[in-house]
Amino acid sequence: MPGGLPKAIELFVTEDVADLSIYGIGSANNGGGSDGEEFTLSGSATAGDHIYIASETDGFTDYFGFAPDFTAGAANINGDDAIELFENGTVIDLFGDIDTDGTGQPWEHLDGWAYRVSGSEASPVFDISEWTFSGPNALDGETSNETAISSFPIRNFTTGAAQGTASDLLISEIVEGSSFNKAIEIFNGTGADVDLSAYSVAIYFNGNTAASTTVVLSGTLAAGAVHVIADDGASAAILAEADVTPGGNFFNGDDAIVLFKGEEVVDSFGQVGTDPGSQWPGGGQNDTLVRKASVFEGDTDIGDAFDAALEWEVLPQDDVSNLGTHTFDGGGETDPALSLTLGADTMPEDGGSVTATLTRTGDISAELTVTLGSSDTSEATVPATVTFAAGSATATFTVTAIDDAEADADQPVTITAAAPGFDDATAEIVVENDEVVITRIHEIQGANGTEAGAVVGVDDVSVLAGETVTIEAVVTADFQSGGFGVGGDMGGFYVQEEITDYDFSDLTSEGIFIFEGYAPEQDVQVGDKVRVTGVVDEYSGQTQIENVVIEILSSGNALPTAVEVEFPVASVQVDGGSYVANLEAYEGMLVNLPNDFVVTEMFNLDRFEEYRLGLERYEQFTQSNDPDAGAYDAFLREMAQGSIVMDDGSSLQNDYPLEIVDGNDGVLTAADDFRMGDQIGNVSGVLGYGFSEFRIQNGTGDYTKLNDRPETPEEVDGNFRVASMNVLNLFSTLDTNPGSNNGPDVIGPDGDTEPRGANSEAEFQRQLDKIVNAIVAMDANIFGLVEIENDFLGAGGVSPEEGATSLGDPTIQVLVDAVNAALGDEVFGWVDPGQEFVGGDAISNALIYRTDRVALVGEMAILEEFEGRSFYDPLGAGRPLNRPAIAQTFEDLNSGETLTVSVNHLKSKGSLSGLEADDAQGDGQGNNNATREAAAEMLSDWLATDPTGQGAENVLILGDLNSYAREDPIKALQADGYVDLGHAANPDAYSYVFDGQVGTLDYALANGALFEDFAGATEWNINSDEADALDYNLDFGKDPSLYTGDTATRYSDHDPVIVGFDFYNLIAGSNKADKLDGGALNDKIVGGGGNDKINGLAGSDLLMDGAGNDKIDAGVGADTFVWQGGRRDNFTGGEGADTIVVDASVVAGNRRDTLSVDDYEVGVDIVDLNGLAIADSRSFTGFTEVTLEGGRDKLYFWGVDDLSHITFAGDVLLA
């Protein structure tokens, strides 16, 4: 066997053996003579058992599927060695010749097998006729007996001849003796008596085709008996056995004899129509021929070639010792058969040849000539014949390859061996073409996977996967490794057919990736025409050629024209359960996408230099749609049909600088304003596939700036601002072992939780600076913080766990100190929860506030359990999921209004809770929706109980609710009267980007009472639209120069939500003439129906005059006066930047109203006409008159010499 294993001997147990130790084996290697008994058996055995002795166990077991009974060195034999079987030390059976090297001998079976013919008996004399052979090399390359073409006949040997019956009568003996000693014997081996009246014997003389003599039989022939027809002049010995002696001429040794049943040939001797000369091959003249006992079926083809040696035994002339009886074993001997094996499966076309071995079974005593043939003589030839020597079971010949000088594929050729009395033997050999056969790339790519819904890695696999091919094509993109690649580093390059070799099918790609590994031997260039030979394979969803040999045929060739691909594409593929645009028909080709795309995702820009484009900025499905599985699936398909990834053509990670299409230098720098939402059109490049996305590798395009970075948040109306702010794992305890879930586990209530933030003090400072910049820019009174380190021991009292590297104070104190330092004043404080840890997670919610603007009322309330249910785990998953909600009541120091603020962080859509109810339902809400919904309901119920006990009517929910705007948790809060303030101000608002889709996860939700004071809101998109390459983190070798510490850009991955309210101390008039005085607070003074006198005094007041002729003195502060009409109203602004707002109702009636602004301060005060147009204006010495639309109502601005000196809010409309 190849590799030497397995080597084994099969023994057959002919009768029960109580003690096998009387038996043993020995081997005679290479004709070296007997070494005696080398291995003794043990145990017992039963008749009919087969015993296997192998040289070892593993190789035998792997090949045959069962273990040997014994292992012994004596079984370490080759196909040219002899084997002896001993009984009580005496040789009782022998295979081969112990004194002859079997190489080249008829019994050689190198890399093959020899097997005993059933019925043979043990003998110390080797008889090759009792053995069948596979022929040498028959098992080359085989790995198991089950799959072998010429399998070892396991457990086939049986004792005694295989008994059977013949289907009809046989000619069993022919006597062609001296003079008239001639006889024909007919044998009944059918097992039943036979009526002979239907039978006749015809004799054909000298090649005639018409019978010369016919003998009609009669009577009954008993089963097992013979019927003898003899010449009437034969000897007494013959006549004594004769049953019939017809007159007339009888046969000679060259005549044919046929036994008929009616007109049907039952058996024959010789070949009708042929005169062989003096006798038939193998005998017939002056011989007695006896049919071999193994023959049980007659020769019914009277015209086939005849050789008496195949089925007849030849006895001396006039030997009639067997006449009158016939020995018949029903086929106990091995049937004559030919088998053909070739020394190799393939041979080269140029000068190739292979040795073929023919093996015959059955009677091998006579010489046998076999006719040979080739199915394609233009590819391979064989000799006309090959001859077995008498007594030889094998014969060899040579199969010779023909070099046809054609560039065709490898050609299979069938070799045939034929001989009379044998079924043809065949074997196939492949003649390997030595001329280059070029396979076209479209033949490799095929149309597989182009159908809608095709599964990547299943439906798109090349029909030639695993095949070796040779292509010729032009290099279109060079991504070789080792510094060779000019476009990137992917371990290879893309090639595309020249247009003259296209098949012009819309479904088959003409491009493919050549993977040569990461140590290329040859440097190719774009424009080179190359010949590549390699194996077709699929890698990460992309068809490629690997294990390649590359030859550059020419250089400087024109590149194929890029094929234009319009988006959205017609259908999608499915990869890992996700949809991807079906661009299979263009995989590997140069493409141009004429659409205008926007950048939708940059999560992988810093690590893998890739970003996603889409036909639009896709919104999370449940941001504006109710959850629905069918509609969500359709949305995902539509989004996939319009999306493509831009990649850098490199498999390297963190490969700086980061390549982008930005309209300038093509790389990302700290000075760039490259953001999601920017436009890239006319995208061109080579189209590849990997990591579940089609990708434009190292592509180009036309960049247009659409989404400017908002360095500061939009102005939010109102005199009281609150912000919800995610601080992206701000930890002053450092994660000194960068990475996730790898320690150090040193924080949290049990000191077993890992820090999640900065890895070093320098990294923490980078993070802190950006967050401080953001807080200062937002200028809110209260900040609800999410994802801050969960440790609130108290200022100056931090006690980090052993092994922790802390920067001193609790993180929240470090943050407040940094903000105060930036403001130059100790104006910020933080709300102490009254306990060191809020919940058991590494992160917590927190509150900081302007101590000069608001005051704490009461203590913080913490929602961990409500009415016997856990807020952490409201549905009983068995582990904490939500972070505890916190609530604190504040008082506005400028108005006296009170407000309870609750900060929240609900379970994410990531890792599952383990509850079936939390499994994603496919409706767009993702994982853990049930837990979030239950938490939202519990939060609302808890807040309704006034958990701080301060009686504040105004309630504001802040934080990361991990739910989009139309999902169940948000709906649950809305059902209880809460209003999404961000959506109320801007229905298109978003605070987060995930998977190329925008949506709101961060909220400010006001109850009904608070909503009455709502003035405005904004999501400051300073984070979500930015690449995380710009943030503080330096993991994975991030380029530190991309960071800018003087901006808030990308301080987190969530955008802050800023909301504004108009908080005033309300002072209301009556329908009488009132004198209404404000105070030091921000007052809202509302005049009634009389002629009122209103004094704002201190504070930034809101003053509303009412219906009478009123006199308003705003006093000190930035006041707002809303003029609602009056025939003779006067307004004095006093100190501060005042705003005069004209209510639209002024021009609604027929009354002529006038307002005298007695002290308008040019360049300071603002006039808001609320959309009303100016009908006329006139300037006089010391004042300007403005007439409003309709021509009746007028404003007089004293101290203003010209209309242009008045500052208006918004554009001025002229009637």
TrEMBL record:
Alphabetical list of CDD domains matching this protein: YhcR_OBF_like (cd04486)
GO MF annotation terms: calcium ion binding; catalytic activity
Domain LTD positions: 156-273
Segments for region (Disordered): 734-758
InterPro entries: CalX-like_sf, Endo/exonu/phosph_ase_sf, Endo/exonuclease/phosphatase, ExeM-like, Hemolysn_Ca-bd, Lamin_tail_dom, Serralysin-like_metalloprot_C
Polar residues bias: start-end ranges: 734-743
Protein name: Extracellular nuclease
